[in-house]
């Protein structure tokens, strides 16, 4: 008796899809297999969604922090060396003549204790000219209360909104500043204590800055910190924050005196390096969720192959090839992975687009403040989806899902019809 003839159908033919999708619809005796498939689908969905959300939040967190930090501190700080920095106006003029520099201004900076009848806090006082502060969009564009109209005309200051809340101050109230660098007397240096009117209150959205910065007129800051005729440095903003080497060389060539140039990467190197390491580690850890779900696909398909061994044997005796059997079970497992991946993609995108609203709802439900500004520096939860990250997550999930189906499908194709039907 001759062996049954076999013929290979066109890959992924209609009957292969029909059988694969029928195997996904469980009957009563196959309910346990269906439960495993459901958990696999759910695991891949949650894994992909979680990865997309976490990557988006990490990207948004870095972008927001970078914009806030560079918006307030500038891309470069230029300071004089060898001699006192009395020629800061000449240096400013020389730097402003460099192509690509959009803003440069001198400043005086010092630490002080801010006091009010309610509380006391350490602050960083920065002296700046009124015209420069009005062009300083991080501050001038974010004044929430009061204005900059009288800044520079009298003894008034502009403070951050969190500092105002902590000290219980409003526009027009008095803020007392206490500096240890006061008047020099025969008995030593005495602290300088002076009260200033609050002209304006700003909010840039970064709690550390909103609660620590006080802006004072440039001349008043020179007098307050005993820096008459001097500047602490020159703040420089450029068009391209990534081209720091080119701008550094131009400034060294343009300024006609010895200077020390400090760029934003040097001042924040440890912080942003830590963010990048955390982002990569989180990606690797959360990938394990997708990997576990893919392992569930292997176990579910393996049990399905065992349960369908009689069907496989009949198909083989009717002429189905090993490759056709393998494709049938590959489609079955891959369908779970593809469906879970794209469901996770949809969930992740929807959550990212509405993440701040979701945070507020969860905060109200739990009665706690999720994403506290004091801990995370920002007043809102940012999310910035990157096409490259989303594509990488989807591709990784699909590849893991496809790889997970290969072994069970291969086992199904290798099943011997004679052995499978011997005891039927």
From TrEMBL:
Record InterPro entries: ABC3_permease_C, Lipoprotein-release_system, LolCE_TM, MacB_PCD
One annotated Gene Ontology cellular component of this protein: plasma membrane protein complex
Domain MacB-like periplasmic core: 40-253
Domain ABC3 transporter permease C-terminal intervals: 284-417
Membrane-spanning ranges: 32-58, 281-305, 325-351, 390-410
Record's keyword terms, sorted: Cell membrane, Lipoprotein, Membrane, Transmembrane, Transmembrane helix, Transport
Localization per Swiss-Prot or TrEMBL: Cell membrane
Main location, first listed in the record: membrane
Pfam families cross-referenced by the UniProt entry: FtsX (PF02687), MacB_PCD (PF12704)
BP terms from Gene Ontology: lipoprotein localization to outer membrane; lipoprotein transport
Topology within the bilayer: Multi-pass membrane protein
Family: Belongs to the ABC-4 integral membrane protein family. LolC/E subfamily.
Protein name: Lipoprotein releasing system transmembrane protein LolE
